């Protein structure tokens, strides 16, 4: 009998009388027999009737169990009522009913109404507890290739948010030991959150105004639904724009073919739409978003601790690494998490040349932001 199979065999020693046949071979046996109805008679006809009744009772007693399937489990029940088995059956049916309800609710929440935060496809959130050490959190982030985690309380509600930037600025840049400090001490407590039915435009506008890269998303029950990453949102929007332009360009070219063959004029609305998409596709260049402030640079011998302190001082999450005046690498706050803290290196003694990305790609100033995002996303 498998572990998932319960057999409801009643105790045959309960509610049984004494053996009515003193001269029966069963008198010296330990096998109890049910008491037949009525008192035994001395006549042979009465004895015969009693034996027939006894035989019928034995047939009922030896009837194979009736199988009851509940969900994926198999229950066996004797013809006699078994309250304990019935209680187990009811509990299993209730549990299955709850699971079906939760599954249907999950399917319902996965539907993304157009124009809402849910339509932006928030990423699955990595969750940790406040008592987790920074080094443990870094190891988890490195294993999942994430640069953001949500901190949850005992009720699995959002208590804070912790990012690679926080680790670089508030831990390494401040000179703290990652193994001696907990997430609760340096996380951003009670972060702003969006709901799944919040307008996507409002959520993105909030992230831009506040300078947030990550925004937690909750459903109507205050349960965690995911995390928005603004760079991913912009990249997805660019892809949609490219697909729209490609489709409109094909329509535009088809209309041009009709015009050349039939001499008909193209609908002005189509021309204006394609030109508007073309303008958006070209978009602003990198030169338009540069503020004229030179990038922060360090030497190859600079320690990770010093580099993180410079990031914090200059409000940047990346520094360029120079060797004899030439750019030889780039070092970011994400590198602090993945390549320094997670492997257990000491930021005070580890130089950036050991953990930087060597020979980084460069972009010309006239490159469009769209092309730059595509290039960065491919990394």
From TrEMBL:
Residue ranges annotated as compositionally biased, kind Basic and acidic residues, are 55-64
Q: Does this entry carry the keyword Magnesium?
A: no
What domain of life? Eukaryota
| Gene Ontology CC terms, in alphabetical order | ribosome
Q: Which UniProt keywords apply?
A: CBS domain, Repeat, Ribonucleoprotein, Ribosomal protein
Q: Where is the composition biased (Polar residues)?
A: 1-16
UniProt region (Disordered), positions on chain: 1-70
Question: Is Ribosomal protein there in the keyword field?
Answer: yes
Q: Which Gene3D superfamilies match?
A: CBS-domain (3.10.580.10)
- The CBS domain is annotated at 120-179, 187-243, 290-347
Official protein name in the record = Mitochondrial ribosomal protein subunit S4
